[in-house]
């Protein structure tokens, strides 16, 4: 039996990831400045053992040689489990965190390993044919551009979120001051898309109309407060971004700890970088830079300010 160093879905750089292929996009082209030429890429969406979804981007020969039509055809009847190795995490405008391929990346379909067997067993009654979707243009976030998008809380408050384009992001250097403990800090989300579910008697159904063939998953919904020297404001933190800050998935903590304890966990007097964007008349955390990106952001901020970094 083959063995791999499988990493869970997260916003940290990952060596290997595993999941059920949910959808495959049509092949796209992206301009690469380093080589001054276009390279092809193929986007996929995976779902892991806990029902979370992750974007995968395969570049160059890896994406070009990925036989999407064959996989989609096979995926109409049975679930296809994929393992991707040698991958890195990157933030993309309008898409969020994506696990992308490198020159060392490889992929394997339906490997005979324990992790694949466990995932397949969990999907026994939850098969959904693989979808073919139009391509989403990949726009890697340039750290220099991200630094230039920096806004203070006072500046964010002066903006009308409803007038901002979808995918607009800003960099904020803030401290988190906990969450509103009078509101629920978690919700039941759709197994397929993570949108909230409703109940029809004893049966859950997705408000976006996803197939009613899986139990809902427990996800974070934190109504948090962030602060800098110009003021304070509320900001929503959902799903993977909240998981980055708390350190555990919501399904492991619901029923075990209180909202007050969650508030204590994310609270800090130390400034940190958050990527935020417009969301339903307010703002939402769209990205939590990992340690490597935070270090690079600190360097960029130092260069912009001509002095010392503001966070670590």
Automatic annotation (TrEMBL):
Superkingdom of the organism of origin: Eukaryota
Entry-linked InterPro entries: NA-bd_OB-fold (IPR012340)
Gene3D superfamilies found in the cross-reference section: Nucleic acid-binding proteins
Family matches, as CDD domains: RPA1_DBD_B_like
Name this protein carries in UniProt: Replication factor A C-terminal domain-containing protein
